[in-house]
Structures are given as C-alpha cells and as structure tokens.
Design goal:
By secondary structure, the protein is α+β, with helices and mostly antiparallel strands. The strands form eight sheets. It has a seven-stranded mixed beta sheet, with no helix packed on it. The protein has a five-stranded antiparallel beta sheet with strand order 17-18-15-20-21, with no helix packed on it. Strand 9 and strand 10 form a beta hairpin.
Length: about 525
C-alpha cells in the first residue's frame, strides 16, 4: 500500500488439536539424496510450506485444477460458471467472519475495486532519467455495516481472512478500521493452502518435489468447506524445545590457490537411524545411509566480495564421534582436487527452538536482505508467527516430519520458504455492537491480479470475490463496484460490470457464492 492513502496500515480450540500438538514426537529421519540432486529438482519450481504439526496432513483439493477462458483463450481447462484457472492465482477476496455466536447481527457488505494503480505514471531513474510504469493491481475496500437487531449489546471476535503469502503481506496486509478509526489486529496464519507435485508435474506420491498451489476458485471452496482450516490457524505451534548438538565451522583459512571456487568439506560417520542431520550455511554435501557416511561442504573460501559464512551442522539424536576437514578446488569434493584449507570447529549444545530463532533473527536482521529486504523485519508480521511457520514446515514436510517430503533435505534455509507459500492470514479483533445500533468495519488493501505467464491470457488480470465462503455472519445484502476504470478494459465478468456503458455498481445475488472479472490495461 505504499503511496496509497489508506488507513495507516481466541478462541477455544478443539481438544484433539491441543492434544495432538502436545504429544507429537519427532521422527529421526534424514535426507538420502545428494544435495546436487536436490538443487536440480528445486529449480523446477520455487515456493514454500508448513502446517500445524507433523501429523496434520496438508489440504490438497483444488490444486492444479480449474477452467480456461473462452474470452482470453488458453490457461487451463473448462472452468464453467466459477471462472478460470491461472498459473498465478491470487485467490478471492474473502468475507469477514466471526468466532462464536453472531446471532442477531445483520450484515450489509459493499466491495469496491479501485483500478487507479493501472494509471500510467512517470518514475525517476537513479541517473536522473525517467520511465513510465503501471501496476496490475486494484485497491480493494471491503466495507461492512453490522447492525445489532437484539436488545442486548453484542461483543464479537471478528476475523478478516486474506489469501496471500507472508511476504506479500508486508505491503498488502489489509488495514482494518472500525467506524473510520484504525484498529490493531492480532495476526494468525492458516496452513499452506496447496499441495505438491512430482518433477514432471504429476502427482506421484513418492516424488513430492514441486509446489502445487491452488489455481482456481474451486480450490478455495474445497479448502474452506469445513472449519478445520481456520481451526488450524489457532492451534498450538510445534514444540521444538528438544536438545540438539551443533558444530559451528568458521574462521576459514585457505592456502594460495588458482581454484575458482575453493571449498571446505567436513566429513563424519553417523547412524542415520538414530540421528537427523540438519545444516545451516552449507552449500551441499552427500549422504550414504547404508555405510553411515555424511559430508557437508561450504564454498567460496576466497570470495572477497562475499566471504564464506559460518556453516552449522545440527544433529538431532546421537552425537558423532569425530570429523575430518578437507579442502577442495571446487564444490564437488572429488578425489584429485584436494587443496590445503582449514577452519575452526566449535561444538556446543542447545535446543532446536533456540537455534531456529537464532537463524530467523539473523535473516530478519539482514543476512538475507538481498532476498527478503528489511521490510519483513519492519512489517506488522509478528516474529513469533515467523518462528511458528518455519517450525510447521520443518515438522509437517521437512526432515522432522513423519513422512519427509522429497522437496526438503535438511537445509534449514529451506524453512524461509514458509514465507512465500500461499495461505490464508486471519486478522483478529474485537468489536462491540450496541443494542439496536450499527458499527462499520472496513478492510482496505492492495490486491494483485491473478495472471498467466504465457499464452493468450498472459496480459489479462483476474479478480474475484467470495460472497459467504467460510463466514458465519448473516448477510442481508451485498454490493460490488469498480472505480477509476479509465485505464482498464473490462473483459468477461460475472458481476455484470460494463464501465463503458456506465455500469459500475451492481447488487450481488446472495445465492451466488463466487463472482469474477477479467481486466486488461487500456492501450
């Protein structure tokens, strides 16, 4: 919402969820493939994940399905009246909901899509030049009037759901206002909303290496068909207060060499049935579970622009008896490429929770600024939520899950993927509606358009709206409008909008669960 004048932008849990989180035991597992193979697989698709504990399975419905557009052509199979699928599907604007009893509160809703970001603007270059730019996004104002029809005051815990990633929330987190005054909210996160695919794009359950995110409306309809998804957002985080042994490899010394990318390898023996090996700062390695041999490597020992950072070996389970260090002229660790290199190795004991917090704090404080920037640390996303999402990925899909996914190999950097995995964030706040009176709730946010990267539909942006999906509120009327449409061409849409003929506001049929529209930048 930068540059846009918006607002300055729990409940009792089911007993079985609490019991499950408290009794979950981590399984000692370990990667069995070379890291080089992992990197090759991960190149096929980049993304992120995490759900509750290692025993809660991720929702899979809706992933990779959906319809194509007779208007734009391409981009999927027939989707019928529910709209179209997209290679990058942002998800619908979801309705406000309440936790607990909201009986006697009548709700009217008005959603406006402001397309002013499509307006061409002049931006300045660092060298004094300029260029023209515009954004494929809408400013959405989701407005509710809650009227208490009873004779008693009603205090409600309201939830505003927003389908987005944590990284997107840095700039797109909805700003909530009550009667025009900004309201602080607590932020909760549901599980990763998609599933996984194999390397070829299929659904081989034994090869889960690529993310398979929801691509259409039906996926969200399935995801929120019950109350389990929302409940998972409020369940306890996995308990990582378990002991680990850490070996820190640092203070590298490399003899003069002509090697382009000299590296240092640490090798040791380990019982893979008793110990899970995790790393942080490692560039690769190999595992030979049959013979109990493990190696990890760090490269760039002589890189003056980006010196090699510490490498951590994190052992959950039994300790190792010893280790050897060997330098190599490249990252392969191949015989015949040995060079003289050494490092200081420091062993210490801690908990996995403490170590995870240490590396996430380091990431937020600038270690990965090139990738995430400083915005995440300065955003409204609580650090405790960031810890939780990383822990959920590790225990649900990673090497500490009961069934580790092939996408993850024990590199703790993988856990940062949780922040770019699509999910639903819930903004929670309390409101009291006096007897016989009304309170206005407004959620204002920027929403990027759904889109395809290739094909005839690549220049078409999709926006959609759910009228009642996942909501416990009683809606008496809903309306939708579009504004600042001079810079867009309205394509097919189920709302009935026709800005060129003056139709910019419509009443929504409460029996219709989903409305959609497609727009293009006006040339």
């Amino acid at each position: 919402m930068n540059g846009i004048d918006l607002f300055d932008s729990i409940t009792a849990l089911p007993a079985e969820l609490v019991e499950e989180a408290e009794t979950h035991r981590f399984r000692k597992t370990t990667p069995w493939l070379r890291y080089a193979a992992a990197a090759a697989a991960l190149i096929l698709a980049v993304g992120v994940g995490g759900v509750l504990t290692g025993r809660i399975h991720p929702p899979m419905a809706g992933s990779g399905s959906g319809g194509g557009s007779p208007y734009a052509g391409g981009g999927g199979d027939e989707g019928g009246e529910n709209g179209y699928s997209y290679m990058h599907y942002v998800g619908p604007v979801l309705p406000l909901t309440a936790m607990g009893d909201a009986a006697g509160v009548a709700v009217e809703r008005h959603v406006d899509y402001d397309f002013s970001p499509y307006e061409t603007r002049t931006e300045n270059l660092g060298d004094g030049g300029t260029y023209e730019a515009w954004s494929s996004a809408a400013i959405v104002t989701d407005d509710y009037m809650l009227t208490n029809t009873t004779e008693d005051d009603k205090t409600l815990t309201l939830l505003y759901p927003a389908a987005m990633t944590v990284n997107e929330a840095v700039e797109q987190l909805p700003a909530i206002a009550v009667d025009g005054v900004k309201r602080e909210t607590a932020i909760y996160a549901g599980p990763y909303s998609g599933g996984f695919r194999d390397a070829s794009g299929g659904h081989d359950p034994n090869e889960r290496v690529n993310l398979d995110e929801i691509s259409d409306w039906e996926g969200y309809a399935s995801l929120l068909s019950g109350d389990s998804y929302q409940a998972a957002a409020f369940a306890p985080a996995p308990d990582l207060n378990v002991p680990v042994t850490v070996y820190k490899v640092d203070d590298y010394v490399c003899a003069p060499t002509d090697a382009v990318y000299p590296s240092l390898q640490i090798s040791f023996r380990v019982d893979y049935n008793q110990t899970t090996v995790m790393t942080y700062g490692s560039n690769g390695g190999s595992d030979d579970a049959q013979h109990g041999k493990c190696s990890r490597i760090v490269g760039g020992l002589t890189n003056e622009y980006r010196p090699a950072e510490p490498m951590y070996i994190v052992l959950y389970g039994d300790d190792i008896d010893g280790y050897t260090l060997q330098g190599y002229a490249n990252m392969g660790g191949d015989p015949g490429t040995e060079i003289d290199a050494s490092a200081t190795v420091t062993r210490y004991e801690t908990t996995l929770d403490a170590f995870l917090r240490q590396i996430i704090d380091g990431m937020l404080d600038g270690r990965y600024e090139w990738q995430y920037g400083a915005d995440l640390a300065a955003s409204e996303i609580p650090r405790e939520l960031l810890y939780r999402l990383a822990a959920e990925l590790l225990t649900q899909y990673g090497v500490l899950s009961d069934d580790p996914y092939e996408r993850y190999f024990g590199r703790l950097e993988e856990l940062f993927e949780a922040y770019s995995m699509r999910r639903i964030l819930y903004l929670s706040f309390d409101v009291t509606v006096p007897a016989g009176e009304s309170v206005r709730i407004t959620a204002a946010m920027r929403r990027d358009g759904s889109h395809d990267f290739i094909g005839k539909k690549k220049n078409v942006d999709g926006y959609d709206l759910a009228t009642r999906l996942g909501s416990t509120l009683s809606f008496t009327a809903q309306r939708a409008s579009v504004s600042h449409t001079d810079e867009i061409v309205m394509g097919e849409n189920s709302f009935g909008f026709d800005p060129d003929r003056g139709v910019t506001e419509v009443a929504l049929d409460p029996a219709v669960e989903h409305y959609w529209m497609q727009v293009m930048k006006r040339q």
